[in-house]
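Dataset card, provenance and construction

Sequences and ligand SMILES were collected as paired inputs. For each pair, a complete structure of the chain with the small molecule in place was predicted and serialized as structure tokens. The example below shows a pair involving flavin mononucleotide. Curators did not alter the output after generation; any descriptive sentences attached to a record were derived from the structure itself.
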Amino acid sequence: MNHDYVLKQLSWRYAVKKFDPTKKISDKDWEILEESLRLSPSSYGLQPWKFIVVHNRDILKQLTSLSWGQSQIEDCSHYVVLTTKVKLDEELIDKHVNKTAEVRGLDPKLLAGFKKVMVGDLLNGPRSETIYHWAQRQAYIAMGFIMETAAMLHIDTCPMEGLDPKGYDKVLGLENSGYATVAGVACGYRHPEDKYQNIKKVRFDKDDVFTYIK
Ligand SMILES: Cc1cc2nc3c(=O)[nH]c(=O)nc-3n(C[C@H](O)[C@H](O)[C@H](O)COP(=O)(O)O)c2cc1C
């Protein structure tokens, strides 16, 4: 992958307003997109998320009406809802500690210090008061990863925040699950008639958004 390709794909990507409902992402490509979510980084590596891929037509219809009627949800190939933990608990921290020990062949006791830091910061520290916001931020990193990976594979996306998260939680059966909807990402292929693919990107100048401290 060379520099020109990366820049070309970054410009090629846009938030698709109209997907081609006849075009489907191949299983192999979708597998890579799922991996882009799973491999996304998160604070402490805690992965406070669940990704829900919705194929059910009836549910997609209900989600459309909870998303300002945006057609992307039903017309795209794969619609994924990003959800995160509402509250953080010791259970997730233990799960992460135990998985780390398992994957790296360590005694979990060696990770007691790591656990203590996470508990002190996220469960008992000042950050505990805004922990759902912390969790949501992790989901947005995953959102960026799937969009970027898709663009490199020449697959289109639309990030979707114009939705009713509580309504989604109801339809997706998330109430009382400990997880709540953050946003969605529609993935698929742009419709040739989507006029947004031809309009210029609006971005502030480099000078406007970068400061260099020498
Ligand atoms: C977090 C987030 C939420 C967004 N929600 C929606 C949405 O609900 N519907 C939509 O059509 N576009 C949505 N967008 C797309 C933005 O409007 C779009 O990314 C922005 O205008 C820049 O245009 P571009 O992505 O086409 O370059 C969202 C973008 C982000 C990053």
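Derived descriptions for this record:
The longest helix spans residues 131-152.
Strands lie at 49-54, 78-85, 156-160, 179-188.
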